[in-house]
Amino acid sequence: MLRLVILVAAAAEVRVALASPMSAASQATSASACPDQTGDYAAVDNAQLPDPWTFANGKPVASNDDWACRVQEMSRIMQQFELGALPPAPDSVTATMAGGSMSLAIKVGSNTKTVSVGITKGSGGASGGSGGGSPAIITVGGSSIPIPGTVGRISFGNDACAAQANPASHGTGWFFDLHGKTHPAGALTAWAWCVGRIVDGLEQLGADKTGIDPKRLGVTGCSRNGKGAFLVGALEPRIALTLPQESGSGGAASWRVSDAEKAKGKSIQTAHQIVRENAWFSHNFDPYVNKTNELPEDHHFLAALVAPRGLFVMENDIDWLGPVSTTVAMKAGRMIYAALGVRANMGFALVGGHSHCAFPSSSQADLTSYINHFLLGTGKTSDAEISPANVTMADWISKWSPTPKLSAA
Length: 409
Ligand code: MCU
Prior knowledge:
Elements: H1 2-18, H2 24-27, H3 64-83, E1 92-98, E2 101-108, E3 111-120, E4 134-140, E5 152-156, H4 158-161, H5 174-179, H6 187-210, E6 212-222, H7 224-235, E7 241-245, H8 255-263, H9 271-277, H10 300-306, E8 310-315, H11 323-339, E9 346-350, H12 364-376, E10 385-386, H13 394-397
Helix pairs in contact: 3-10, 6-7, 7-10, 8-11, 10-11
């Protein structure tokens, strides 16, 4: 009996040691301090973007503590309606470093898996004295942005974590080997969990062994992998800078605005199409793809989940990606950052005239400013909000409650 108690206590300790820290906003308030978090939210009937300033139960967000609870609620709502549940940290992760490769032995219940991740150190030391090592960007299926030599790279092979071949590839990959083939997570949620294990390994080994400062991590990816980068930033609070590129529908775009654009005749990716194309979302989403007005969430919530951390969203003017849709959703996202007093922590640049995932040189200065500020600790961000799309924000947010006065600190 005593032995059992000791074992249980030891297991609890490991879990505590591995538990992901909450986002800055939610650090102040534990889940139990938040009211009405039933975990089972009702559908709505709302043609506009759901109001970030009102809880699902109709109460207004009036304080920083309220906001911390609302952020948790928005994450749960998104998991319930489209993403599938993000599992808690695993029972154990054991990291080892050999050459430029970090190996992670991960245990969830009786399932174990060992995966390896390539790491290249950058030449830039971390300023701010957070333990040495260079900052690094985790690349989701590769990178299509220029990463400066000062910043390292960590190569996340997302397809091996959760496949994105077609809708039937749900359940394939090491995430599902650990959690079971029928786990409800879509691939985007699975990738966020798998990246969390990479961060566990970096924290465990420390900068001495990996050459990387785990407090200065960015994440990027383009197109389908840009959706992934956005979701990694939204669900993994240890990411300091999120850099989604041309994520389009399922990333920076709003389901509702994309449906409205489709109704106007645009060739644009919608919720209806996306679940037929691939395994990015949970089957939880299937009942809503023809009635997105019933979702008590939309993708401006992704910005709310990343806030107040660094976020620079790059988009293109390709119809399929929904330039009007990404502009509306990300302008709404910047309003959320502004209400937290940190508008410049989120930038948005929709620049056309180049092929899909080709980085436009006119975005270089903006990108550099976000990397410098959040990963290298120098200078200010450019506070970019660039888009040629003409949008009428009132059509989408006029029913929001008055903006509360909040602060991110
Ligand atoms: C923009 O990302 C996707 C898009 O959602 C898909 O519909 C299309 O098939 O592929 C794009 C992509 O990943 O391109 C590389």
